[in-house]
Amino acid sequence: MTSSAPGSHEFTVTGSELLLQSPILAVRRDRVIMPGGAEKTREVVEHFGAVAVAAVDEAGNVALLRQYRHSVGTRLTEIPAGLLDIVDEDPLVGAKRELVEEAGLEAADWSVLADLVTSPGFCDEACRIYLATGLREVERPVAEGDEETDLTLDWVPLAEARARVLRGEISNSIAVAGIFAASEVVERGGDARPAEAGFPLRPTALARRRQDAGARPDMKQI
């Protein structure tokens, strides 16, 4: 079969099989028609999608968390973030919840900084990063029985946060993107998107499967 011109091939999926399910992800194997007509398999980690918040105070400090991540076996510096694992939850509502739960903060003003596809080589996870300003402290709910019971919160000037990225001290990709995007908006007058902007990259495969199986409202139920 003759290959199509570069950039014009339709990567048709001829079949899929579910390999694994766990509360926060699933793995499937797709059969895909490649340029030239060959059929290849591709494994995809399905994800609910996520939201994250670069919370910046009036002095230009960003809220940074230190949290243990078992996949890499160490604590990472991050911005508040969490899964979109509630049926039909608006991303902004999820972001507001995570800011309260992880940082004990509410914000008067919200906008969209960036949408990230975090690991497109094998995973459909997309994360929307918000900028939150006009902050006030609120009571943080008590976390029980997971990594969040051990997290710490620190306020760091945006310039210092950028320097920590360049020194290799901040390696969480969502935090890196959030810090630099927030700096562009807060310090250089960049234009963030409205908080209600559409999120077309939000994953749907895992959420649709869980909803079809009756997992409501918490889609982590399997």
Automatic annotation (TrEMBL):
It holds the Pfam family NUDIX. GO terms for biological process: nucleoside phosphate metabolic process; ribose phosphate metabolic process. SUPFAM superfamilies: Nudix. GO terms for molecular function: hydrolase activity. The keyword Hydrolase applies. Residues 196-222 are annotated as: Disordered. Residues 46-178 form the Nudix hydrolase domain. Residues 209-222 have a biased composition (Basic and acidic residues). GO terms for cellular component: cytosol. Keywords: Hydrolase. PANTHER family: ADP-RIBOSE PYROPHOSPHATASE, UDP/ADP-SUGAR PYROPHOSPHATASE. This is ADP-ribose pyrophosphatase.
